[in-house]
Amino acid sequence: MQIYYDADADLGTLGNKTVAVVGYGNQGRAQGLNMRDSGVEVIVGNVQDESFERAVADGFTAMPIAEAARAGDVLCLFVPDEVQQVVYRQELEPHLRAGQTLNFAHGYNIHYRLIRPPEEVNVIMVAPRMIGVGVRERFLAGSGAPAFVAVQQDADGQAWPVALAVAKAIGATRAGAIRSTFAEETEMDHFMEQAVWPVIMRLLTLTYELLVEEGFQPEAVLMELYGSGEAAQVFEEMARVGLFRQMSFHSQTSQYGTLSRGPRVLPDAFKSTLAGILEEIRAGVFAQEWEAEREAGYPVFERLKAEALAHEINQVEERLQEIMQAT
Ligand code: NDP
Question: How far is it, in rounded angstroms, from Cα 291 to Cα 302?
């Protein structure tokens, strides 16, 4: 594995370039402010709305997206993934020229070839492993959010130096930027979203349903599951000291219970279910389904969200929050 730190990147690569942040949202604002604080010339392209006003209030020169696409040398496409195709086709593509670099914070649209940039532009990715607020806060605190960096298309031999300079400018090389690919970043990200988090969310939901059916108090169950914040602390300790090593912070009874029952609740055979999800992601089956869903106006997505928000857990959470605030 190759990992880049500050010493591997040269901010001078961006010295004579203008970076256009297209989409001043979660990532756009955080990365734009970090790059400007690193001495990079940054402009903002956004639709005329609240985000546009926010960019102006933050002191940026803001303009319509097409204008930023013409003025910028490095174009950071930071609008949501599901609208990137339209924004790219209508506002960016007509203005692209040799020497420009397209930068993504996630590989989805390039990996599944939903956006196909012309050969004469560089295509890079600097994908922070953190939400925008974290990218900014860590930078201000003198550290940085780790990231994956990748080059999909190196048109002029400058793609890697530009990618590393962007990673440095946003603070990523302070923490470490892992050399990756659009495929690896996208597939891993989707696997987390489609396999790991669903297992955790389903487990919490099924546990709540079972324990309440068995007569346990609903508020007490949620407190035990995640309401107290203990689960979040366990994850923090996993990141800090390790998945198994953090177990020493729990009682012997807890450790024995976890280790002895683990394979029974999730047998090794479950790997084949996980493999099926991964295969769908890799073959583009999920991307096809999601694109069709988007084109149809999100009917299934809206139904699933409504069902989730109608679950009684939501009301119990509200009661639990009131109880906890009262203490
Ligand atoms: P946001 O949802 O915060 O939106 C970004 C911007 O896009 C906003 O300024 C928004 O304007 C604008 N926008 C939305 N719809 C349109 C449209 N139809 N036309 C033009 N502009 C539009 O995006 P994120 O920052 O969350 O995501 C940007 C990229 O960063 C994505 O590729 C994402 O995968 C990646 N990423 C995101 C992370 C995160 O934590 N959120 C983490 C790592 C990567 P307005 O608000 O005014 O509508």
Answer: 15
> According to the model, what pLDDT value does residue 327 have?
60
Q: HSE of 151 in the Cβ direction (CA atoms, 13 Å)?
A: 17
Q: H helices within the chain, ranges in order?
A: 26-37, 50-57, 65-71, 81-87, 108-111, 132-140, 159-169, 172-175, 182-191, 197-213, 218-222, 230-240, 252-265, 270-282, 285-295, 299-310, 313-326
- Domains annotated for the chain, with CATH where assigned, are 3-180 (3.40.50.720), 185-326 (no CATH)
Predicted model pTM: 0.93
Using CA atoms, how far apart are residues 139 and 33, in angstroms rounded to an integer?
10
Distance between Cα 302 and ligand 1 center (Å): 19
Average pLDDT estimate for 215-235: 96
Atom 18 of ligand 1 has which residue's CA nearest to it? 83
Predicted local confidence at residue 189, as pLDDT:
96
Residues involved in catalysis: 106
Span from the CA of 192 to the centroid of ligand 1 (angstroms): 20
Is the CB–ligand 1 distance for residue 26 below 6 Å? yes
